[in-house]
């Protein structure tokens, strides 16, 4: 197996688990689990990221390791999806295979299922058309900040003091007043959700710097929080998490309001 080859290569180079952990910032327990073929402690994305870093440190081709890992996980997934059938059930099925589903029922059920599928697709298409029509009708929001008013000549304008103002016109749109600046000391996987809408996911290289704007909050996932610094509206948010522990962080105008390890318990 590829994980056994990783261990043999590490040992042949005279490199210890501690040395790889210190250099890659990956927890030693994860490295030992990888070498024994246990990949259940981390989400799939983090496992691929850590395995790639491990392969580079022991001078093996990371693409080949990723390919072997994907094939191994696909095989494991297929094995787990095969349900266990009691021996008595299998024997019963073989003896009564001709009486389980009458041929007449199969002939009747097939066109019935086809009709139901067609009806279902028609209903979906109808709903899509209705949603598209509603979207076109409301394509210009009432409170759009692009609405402007031209000031008229005061000498020719009559103001009705008893007329109530139209409160539906010129409703201000919340401004993106939260500025978040990120800096990396080393490579780090980074996933960002802004105001529960905009989502981006990438691996930033060392010495990268990015800035985002939000109205309410940022929801962030960090693969290596110890190599990342964040500043909200110019104020540094301090340490973001433990070394080598993937972490989720939620930030609002009050700063970090939630910090959660992404490791399975």
What's the short version?
This protein has helices at residues 2-12, 17-24, 28-35, 44-57, 62-81, 87-95, 103-137, and strands at 178-184, 188-194, 198-204, 209-214, 218-222, 228-232, 235-236, 247-252, 255-261. It is α+β, with helices and mostly antiparallel strands. Helix 4 packs antiparallel against helix 5.
Structural class, judged by helices and strands? alpha+beta
Pick out the low-confidence regions: 100-106, 137-161, 163-173
Output the strand order for the largest sheet: 3-2-5-8-9
Shape: flat
How many distinct helices?
Answer: 7
Gyration radius (Cα, Å) is: 30 Å
Number of distinct beta strands:
9
**Topology pattern, helix = H, strand = E:** HHHHHHHEEEEEEEEE
Oligomer: single chain
Distance between the termini: 27 Å
Mean pLDDT over all positions? 76
Report helical residue fraction: 25-40%
Largest sheet: 5 strands, antiparallel
Question: How much beta, percentage-wise?
Answer: 15-25%
